[in-house]
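Same chain as my last thread, 776 residues:
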Amino acid sequence: MALPKAVGYFVVLLGLNYFLGKTGHSQSLNVFSEDVMDTKVEVEEIRMVDFDVVLELNMAVQSVQTNFFDQLRTFLKNISLNHPVSTLSTVREVDINFTTGCSHSASVQLCQCEEQFAWSCDKCNVYDSCSDVTTPSCDCINGLPTDGEFCEPIASITPCPVKTTPPPTTACATCVPPQFAGLLADSQNLTEESLPGVLSQLNGFTNDLAQEVVESTATISAIVEILTNVANALANFRPLTNQTSVENILSTVGILTTEAARASWVTLNAETRNVAGIRTNSPSVSSSLLASLENITRSLSNNPFNIATPFILFNQTNFTDTFTDDFNSSVVIDIPQTDARSISVMTFASMDNVLLARDKDNSSSTVINGRVVLVRTRGAVTNVSFTFDVRNTTLVDPQCVFWNFDLFDGRGGWDDQGCVLVDNVNQTVTCNCNHTTSFSILMSPYSPDDPVLDIITYIGVGISMASLVICLIIEAVIWRSIRRNTTSYLRHVSIVNIAMSLLIANIWFIIGASISDFSEKKNPACTAATFFIHFFYLALFFWMLCSGLLLFYRTVSVFDGGMSRKSMLAIGFSLGYGAPLIIAAITIAVTLPNGQYTRAQGICWLAWEDSKALLAFVIPALSIVAINLLILILVIYKLLRRRAVTDSAQASERHVLVVIARSLAVLTPFFGLTWALAVGILISPRDRGIHIAFAFFNSLQGFFILVFGTLLDKTVRSELGKTSQTSSSSGTRSTSAGNSSSAFIDFFRNLGKGRAGYNTSSPGTASGASHSHTNS
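reply #2:
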């Protein structure tokens, strides 16, 4: 058996010696082989055998022609082993593989692999790759391995990422990094052999440069185009069985769907948004991404797949007759009866960052409120059921939809054709569809469409604003009378500012409601409206706190002593408007830069889900309600224990305090109940009873201020009666022709003026005797 081997080696050596002699390199031949030196020649055992000859040629570099390896390859392929010696006629050449050639380039030795051969991963990592050719590993290294190993067949090498150096980042938003530009060019000429390497590099570059990728619309577009080219190429290849390649695709796409990429997708979707009268017939980038994934699933083999990446889960399963499975406890798919035998399911954790929540009516007033799931079956499916976990339970009106690539001139949108809503209970939505593709649910921001609520709100706000205007007019008419007594004067200052704050807040509320846009969260006008609504609602409560503190201070202090009127006015205005301004300013400064100041659905009011900014109103408001209730309890206790007074001034002062306590005793629980109901809505947003109660109390706040803050004061009614009698008397009585019309001017002119004295001389008496006039 060994004789044919020995003879074969000998013949090959003779041929090589002849070739090297012709090229002037016969002295450089060095041959090594196995089990030849110990061969025992036994002629009787000669028979057909296979053997390999491994040759190592070492020669001076300067003497090698540039085409030496090509000549040697040609010679070896054409060598004939036939020889006149009879024993050599049994030796036949089967195949010759030329695997590795090493040469010098400048000061570096380069070892290049021939076609269908490559260096293993460890060789590429140790010696560094010297070629950009795409293979499962690399086809050129810098140096000859010291362990004597040569290039190996590509089929026997496990794919590994090519060692790369990340490029310097660039500030160019429209530039594509060179790595992705190169892959984009390579993806246009894919082969089955080069595909794994391209996908491996694509995943490596995307993860290494994730921050740069998600912030660049140009890079995202380039990656989507690469994936589209991959999907198109796979359609012409054999079914894809390489699980590593599929995992590379999913990992790459997962980076593109993260929250950090949302801003880039908003820009890309805005560039392809449907504009009336304009037809582009080109798919959006987001739609192209989803289409490429659907096409890739069509090119997979029937083998089972179970791949989990941080943002995408992929499962391919074979089944018979029926299918039911729960994917990541967020989507349940049920196929009761079908001829299909295989199902592919791709579940996305954050595809809502990519796809527009735009339905077939081109409305963007809805949001994607469940996982997006891509489903493909091999075989016809006419009945498939999906159960989605609802993400935001404050949203309503679920719609079962699929992504229709043909909507809006091929740019894609959500369509409900063939899908119906089956159930909406326990924070899950069940849909039934008669086809398979990419599915999800759309839901509207929670704003209950209830005619009763609309009627209560519109009528109540109208009554409230009218009541506040009447309140301010009354205060202006009686202002000259009430400003004589300090306590009464400060009480009415508080009432005026409470009414003014609520009136302005209601006006901004109407403005905010008119400019709310569900499709635009960062609306500057909406931001301004939210700030002023927040500020003036807070001012309303802080002026109520001023009334409570005034009541407490005048009750526990000596009646005729204490701070001056100007000091108390300064404290009142600092607390009534200064504190709300600080709170409102801090709230907008902290939340606005992160886009979390207003509601995510474009509603002009403080956000709750994102930043809990609404607490910047609820906590101060309810805290003031609690403080005023405590003050009321203490004041009532003090007044009940105080002995009856006979002094006229003290009696009138006591009367004013009783009036303040009575108004606070009504208004404080009223406002507290109103905004306690607001907290109830946050806790139970679907409770219709709480909504109706809140709308009722909130819309009638102005009416309650007019009634309990002004009209129930008998002194106010008395002064109004005197004004009415004066204006209707004859010319023989002393009247002021411009009394009513000049009252507003006097009101604002004398807001901070007036003597603190209470007893005045009667202008109509000659004796100079004083009389006491009580105001409250």
